[in-house]
Amino acid sequence: MTCKRILIVDDNPVILKALSFKLSAAGFDAITAEDGAEAVSAVRSQAPDLILVDISFPPDVANGGGVAWDGFLIIDWLRRFGEATAIPFIVITGGHSADCEKRARAVGAAGLFYKPLDYAELIGAIRQTLDSKVAA
């Protein structure tokens, strides 16, 4: 069995490091991206099996403000590329809102997890999502 590759898209380096460590310990190959542009590059070059994406991102002040990113925009953007149309997404967020839950369902997210993350539950959901993808 090949090691499944998980892309983590989050602007917080602590979350990226912690999730990478937990996923690696669970037998996954963790790839990280801090923003939408890095996520697109990772999808194209690394071909992840699943994507974990945060919802909240700061404005891109280094590039003049640019697009006001959020995880849903990143998901929409990634799905426009042929490489990502069949990759399942799991949304992670620090905010609890009915709107976030509704939007996660609307984009077809395989799950929604709130920070602080329950890693055992998240890893279980990742495995279940990947298993159901293989069975389909």
Instruction: Give me the Rg, rounded.
Output: 14 Å
CATH architecture: 3-Layer(aba) Sandwich
**Helical amount:** 40-55%
What CATH calls the topology is: Rossmann fold
Major beta sheet, strand line-up: 2-1-3-4-5
Please describe the biggest sheet, giving its number of strands, its sense, and whether it closes into a barrel: 5 strands, parallel
Note poorly predicted spans: none
- Which superfamily, in CATH terms, is the homologous superfamily? Response regulator
> CATH class, please?
Alpha Beta
Along the chain, the helix and strand elements come as EHEHEHEHEH
Number of domains: 1
Average pLDDT across residues?
A: 89
Task: Please tally the helical runs, counting DSSP H or I stretches of 4 or more residues.
Answer: 5
Q: What shape does the CA trace take? A: globular
Structural class: alpha/beta
| End-to-end gap | 17 Å
Work out the number of β strands.
Answer: 5
Task: Please give a quick description of this structure.
The chain has 136 residues and is an alpha/beta fold. The protein is 43% helix and 18% strand.
